[in-house]
Amino acid sequence: MRKVTYFAGAVFIIALSMLVVNAQEKFSKVVTDATRWDPIDFAAPQECSASPEECAVKMLTELKIDVGSEPEFSVYPIGKTDDGNVTVVFVSRLIENDDLIMGKLFRLELEKSDQADPTYSLDGLGVMYQCMDGKEGWRKTPCGT
């Protein structure tokens, strides 16, 4: 009976560790791969101790990037990485009165030193464009090029 209990415990621990690894792999490459985005150079804005959405707007505003009056958000808590605890936030904005660009999608990589830390810092920033003409969907290159 003990052998069965030990075996079941070992299987449970192995399965649990595989779930942690799979949790990070469940996100698409658009979320996890920053090279798919047009990078934006930035001087690090101040750290933020609010929700990821609020921090994203605060940081973009501080960098003088307009997100419009009603941005849409998607938040992806990636979790623990080599750099710390990472959350990726997408901020999308509909562009009005532009013949080339229909929308912009910003990708902010927010980092905390650990899960308990309430303070986010901006570790990466990129943008994708949705154009009026050409290939449908989001693309890395600016519209009209």
Task: Please tell me about this protein's structure.
- The protein has helices at residues 2-25, 29-32, 52-62; strands at 38-39, 72-80, 85-94, 101-112, 121-131, 138-139.
- With 145 residues, the chain is α+β, with helices and mostly antiparallel strands.
- Strands 1, 2, 3, 4, 5 and 6 form a six-stranded antiparallel β-sheet that branches.
- The N and C termini lie far apart (69 Å).
Which outline best applies?
globular
Which structural category fits the helices and strands? alpha+beta
What is the first-to-last residue Cα distance? Answer: 69 Å
Q: Report the β-strand fraction as a percent range.
A: 25-35%
How much helicity do the residues have? 25-40%
Unreliable sequence segments: 3-24
Q: What count of helical segments does DSSP give?
A: 3
H/E element order: HHEHEEEEE
Task: Report the radius of gyration as a whole number of Å.
Answer: 19 Å
Q: Give the strand tally.
A: 6
The major sheet is characterized as:
6 strands, antiparallel
Averaged pLDDT: 80
